[in-house]
Amino acid sequence: MRYSVWALARNALSGHRAWPMAWKNPAPKKHYDVVIIGGGGHGLATAYYLAKRHGVTNVAVLEKGWIGGGNTARNTTIVRANYFLPPNSHFYEHSLKLWEGLTQELNFNLMFSQRGVINLCHSPAELDGFARRYNSNRQNGTDGDMLSMDELRKLVPALDVSPAARFPVVGGVIQRRAGTARHDAVAWGYARAADALGVDIIQNCEVTGLRMDGGAVTGVETTKGEFSAAKVGIAVAGHSGHLAEMAGLRLPIETHLLQAMVSEPIKPFLDHVVSSGAHHVYVSQTDKGELVIGGQLDGYNSFSQRGSFARIEDITAGMLALFPQTRSLRLMRKWAGAVDMTMDGSPIIAKLPVDGLYLNGGWCYGGFKATPAGGWCFAHTIAKDAPHDLNRAYTLERFSRNALINERGAGNRPGLH
Amino acid sequence: MMLITCPFCGPRADTEYVYGAAAGQGYPAPDAQQHELTEYLFLRDNPKGWHRELWVHRHGCGQWVEVERNTLTHEIRQVQALLQHEGKE
Q1: Could you tell me the pLDDT band of residue B1, with boundaries at 50, 70 and 90?
Q2: CATH number (domain holding residue A316)
Q3: Strand pairing partners for A260?
Q4: Residues of A in contact with B24 (CB under 8 A)
Q5: ipTM above 0.85, yes or no
Q6: Which of 40-69 (B) contact A at CB < 8 A?
Q7: What angle do CA A53, A56, A60 make, to 5 degrees?
Q8: Model pTM score
Q9: In chain B, where the domains are located
């Protein structure tokens, strides 16, 4: 059923009891052309684009929990494309373009809000660095503008721009097409659209092993039985290494903790996403009025999905320095996600050195914004057995050739990217 | 909060320490092959469970220690002074 105002009116007449399921709950088949492990945004987007763009519809998406219950629902919903290095710049711009038409394409309201992402600069050197990065973005066809202090004051009246601030603000930059989207709606929208094209979405189905034959992957073993598959794609945030290990591969990935938190709801006072590198903090306000606050990694390997109080203190201290009027706010909840940190801070979307096995992973702390393009490129890579130009650089082999894509310029310490 | 018992200073909060890297990487030989260098620089076991890792007691004695910690529960089983020459940055 197509969602529309007419569908809403029709269903209102029957007391909203006749809405069909957004996606089916099919019994798994014995064979699939493609099995995607992981029913998060990336896995579901991959299945959708496989069916939509490449005509591959005998596809299963295996999810160990439920749709919209993993990292897709743990991120801070930010979508932006302000990366410096050309492979990242082009990839994320493509993603942003897909976001711009996605609500209409999927016929599902993703609440995509291009409210603008502002990065604050706290020193002339930082301002110069951002000027260089945003000039480069414009050369690559992405939007980005410098903000004077007057513009900044006007756009973010709540911001403490006084010279007495902990780290005084000296300027900023904005990407106006960037913003936020409702995170679980992205998973639901892709799930519904993929299901309508014939993809099987199988929940509560954990992969326990890969079936191998002559060095090639021929299927998966799961808690719901075994399936044979010509191609298997891995899209499991936080656990990429464990899946790859089932095929005897080691990855340049460590799993780290990333925390986020939400305040009690208040009246609208922040129209943009505001981010500060000096304070390691970023803040936005949801449509419900809550402040969503995020920061940096806890800093050590962890699968616990349980963050430290020390990091909460760091992050909230940063927010208080930028917005002192938030000091009396209470936090409603906080959570931590397990993120796959690669050794250069950039993702991997590639065929692995085992036949029939493909990986979409290593998204570090930034996989949400990449959901549409990640699925789009992964579907292309699986269907054509070759990367698209947009993900040609995101190989696993780049680590053997030392051809890293390192935005941060940090070394082989995943926690620092 | 994790309590890491420094062999030199006693039990201290994890906030006194800075995480370094996975322990036991070992230096590659001077004539190491490309794939050995790749392994040393970039490939990690990343276990969900017990993990040997290096921390530095930055706001304490400044010494590097090897910690055996569970990455799922954050339980710490053993902390020992780092042997000379091993895994220094």
Answers
A1: confident
A2: 3.30.9.10
A3: A294, A335
A4: none
A5: yes
A6: 41-46, 48, 51, 53, 69
A7: 120
A8: 0.95
A9: 1-24+47-89
